[in-house]
Design brief:
Rossmann fold; alpha/beta; NAD(P)-bd_dom_sf; 300 residues; SDR family NAD(P)-dependent oxidoreductase; oxidoreductase; SDR_fam; 50% helix; 7 strands
């Protein structure tokens, strides 16, 4: 994917933060853009900011399969076939797994994981059927590699997006469709205020909002990377067909430490019965995996 001009892009979580940054960067590259967001007030503000541009807004709860399909139909009827998809919408709860409720799980999984699944399942078959290539970019996070006790559910969803995205990259490459995964660190965004858009139906067991904690998170996010910077780095990576988009270079050393710790956990055990036969099977899988990576990297 080297040419973005003239394509139609669909960006979830597009009214604020990284999503809005992506929308503006895509428009600057000559794309028509649909920004989808669950917040109607934010969507109206974004559309006002982007008035007189080739953009449309769609109110969308990404956790709904039906709503996603309807939104896709509306956008493609107005802007033409979508060949750039940015599954970017996300929410967060800054708490541990054992202190969370089932509704906490359903909310974050619905947006952060099922929102990506719904975007892929809505648009990937259409893109394959039409030909013409394209690109899907799923927003994960450095939280898809690095985690602590909190935010446990958020980490879970982002690790899952990582596996989904890599598998998708290999299955779509033969069809000329690229896949990337954006892994930002701290961003100047409003994710700290996720509770404000939590559905009433999924508030069972929810903790009372700690206003002081939220205010402190707001200050932290003010020091985050500007969305426009992340957007430009993302589009550069898509043009170069890179899978991992590490917008924040400050994580390189820490990620290296974690990978070194992972590799250090391997042991040279004595040979177990059946190992030679098992290694023959694994050799075939390894060769297939290597070939899939080569095909995906060669996509232009």
């Amino acid at each position: 994917m080297t040419e973005l001009t003239g394509r139609t892009a669909f960006v979830t979580g597009g009214a604020n933060g990284v999503g809005l940054g992506l929308a503006r960067a895509l428009i600057a590259q000559g794309c028509k853009v649909a920004i989808a967001d669950v917040r109607e007030d934010s969507l109206a503000s974004a559309l006002k900011l982007l008035e007189n541009q080739p953009v449309m807004g769609v109110t969308l709860d990404v956790s709904s399969r039906e709503a996603f399909a309807e939104a896709a139909d509306r956008v493609e009827a107005e802007l033409g076939p979508v060949s750039l998809v940015f599954n970017n919408a996300g929410v967060n709860l800054f708490q541990t797994i054992e202190d969370s409720s089932y509704d906490d799980w359903d909310w974050l999984l619905g947006v952060n994981l099922h929102g990506v699944i719904n975007g892929v399942m809505t648009f990937a078959p259409r893109m394959k059927a039409r030909g013409g290539g394209g690109h899907i970019c799923n927003t994960a996070s450095m939280a898809g590699f690095l985690c602590n006790g909190a935010p446990g559910i958020y980490n879970t969803t982002k690790f899952a997006v990582r596996g989904l995205s890599e598998s998708l990259r290999y299955s779509l490459a033969p069809h000329g469709i690229g896949v990337s995964m954006l892994c930002p660190g701290l961003v100047k965004s409003y994710i700290y205020a996720s509770d404000a858009i939590r559905p009433d139906a999924l508030k069972g067991g929810a903790r009372d909002v700690n206003s002081e904690f939220v205010a402190n998170l707001e200050k932290l996010h003010e020091a985050g990377m500007e969305p426009e910077v992340i957007a430009q780095r993302t589009l550069d990576a898509i043009r170069e067909n890179r899978f991992y988009i590490f917008s924040h270079p400050e994580f390189r050393e820490e990620l290296g430490e974690v990978f070194d710790e992972v590799l250090a956990e391997f042991r040279d055990y004595p040979e177990d019965p059946g190992r030679p036969e098992r290694l023959q099977i694994e050799a075939g899988r390894r060769a297939s995996y290597r070939k899939a990576r080569e095909v995906a990297r060669a996509l232009v």
